[in-house]
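Re-run with default settings, no changes from the original entry. Doing this only to confirm the output is reproducible before filing.
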Amino acid sequence: MPKQAIEVVDESPQIDMSIIEYDITEAAIAKMEQDYMGLTIAGLDDKHGLAVVHEARMVVKSHRVAVEKRRVELKADALEYGRKVDTEAKRITQLLAPIEDHLQTEEEKITKERERIQAEKIRIEEERVEGIRAKIEAIRSFSLAFQITKSEVIQAMLGEVESIKITTEEYQEFFDEAVRVRGDVLNALTKNLIDRLAWEKSETERKAEGERLAKVKAEQDAKEKALKEERRKIDAEKAALEAEKQAEEKRKKDEEFRKQALEDARVKAEKDAKEKVEREAREAKEIAEFDAAEKARDEALRPDKEKLVAFAQSLFKIPAPDVKSEAAEEIALAALNNIATIAQTTIRKAEAL
């Protein structure tokens, strides 16, 4: 592709007029836009269309990578010059981006449609399996939900499970499992019914005996309640007398405690005032000593800070190696960006010392 210079003139009196060159022209970009923006992929079976769109996108991408590489090379000489290089590279990249985006969108249409079709197949299969599983679990739930209930309800559940028909058309590859689960549930409900009938009989007998014992206990409780009430009255009278005695003793102790507390508070206040004066004097001295130490430390670190900043600034001047392959160019570009980041970080940390 022909090489044409794109001229950027800086009128600043400190910087000479410069020529910024990229291996791409606006005419070439316009030609790619004319040739590529109309490319589309007809569908999943349009392998030729997919190949053409992919090849076109690779062409556009190669120009974008070349612009980025050239931008780094031009920017290495000076930061001010680099900003101008970035501006022109950004403008050209913005012209290339819609073309590349269009081509990538066309490719992604096919990729996403293939993914959607595959996901739909998986979803349909999962729904089929889950539907059959749900039916089997519904049968199994009969043996879990009615472990403790009335015998009439268990009998009804047995009839409901017996009426369930298991067919290969409905349960497909899970037919054997459905038959086994239905049989297990029928066995479990039958055993539960037998156990429940026996429990209901024993429960009826237990309730009759419990009512008789409750009547006997109620009579005994009434007698004990009368005796407890009499003892409660006697204990209450004793407790009232004891409470009056303890209240008087507490009043005397509280009066003595109050007097002692007032004296302790006075002594403590005098002590706290004296300690406050001493503490404030000590803290003022420590603050003055700390400020002096910080000032001396800053002065001692000043030469190191200046050396670190000068070292970091020298990193910006490291030139890029002259390599040929696209992979090597990308590695060199990444290395220059990393060096710039290291230099900036070094300056920031040096200034923070």
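The chain has three domains: 4-127, 129-225, 316-353. The first strand starts at residue 4 and ends at 8.
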